[in-house]
Sequence to fold (209 residues):
Amino acid sequence: MNAIKGHFRSKHVFSSFFQVCILERQIFDFLGYQWAPILTNFVHIITVILGLFGTAQFRPRYVTGYAVWLVLWVAWNVFVICFYLEVGDLSKDTDLIMTFNMSMHRSWWMENGPGCMVTPVTPPPDWAPEDHRYISISGCLLEYQYIEVAHSTLQIILALAGFIYACYVVKLITEEEDSFDFIGGFDSYGYQGPQKTSHLQLQPMYMSK
Fold:
């Protein structure tokens, strides 16, 4: 039990770093109106909290669910990397995937990346929507798609570490459950209660004259 508590403290530090990284990503996705990543990040935050709760309360099902979600989380981040690197038929200019076709916004880093200079184009072309500005971006030290790829790569590394750690915690909890009786507090194999006799044995008494 003490071993699990010690690992819980370590997992708490790891999860705190995990949460800071995902909250940072969530903020920039909000700024860029990236609705698909926003929803996925929200589910991820809730799952991390449940995984931490499962570790604290010694409930392997919660930790197992957290580990299963990490597999899906890795798959999502691999897809994001492929999306921004335009692998196969994917295109980073597609509005349907990241914004559900509700806006023409791109990643926040597209206009606010390191060294990027935004210049309004006037007059805008005829095809440009009236409620949108038409801009030109130049001078970026690092293109926005590579920043998004770096974010996803970091999440994959953290997820792999979290998956290994979750499996280890489940193993510890399962071993503790097998060797300790949580209800009685005794080893289920090493302790036997006192045996009660059903009747008293009477011994004959002899009187000497």
User: Anything to note?
Assistant: Residues 186-191 have pLDDT under 50 and may be disordered. The longest strand covers residues 117-120. The CA atoms of residues 32 and 107 lie 5 Å apart.
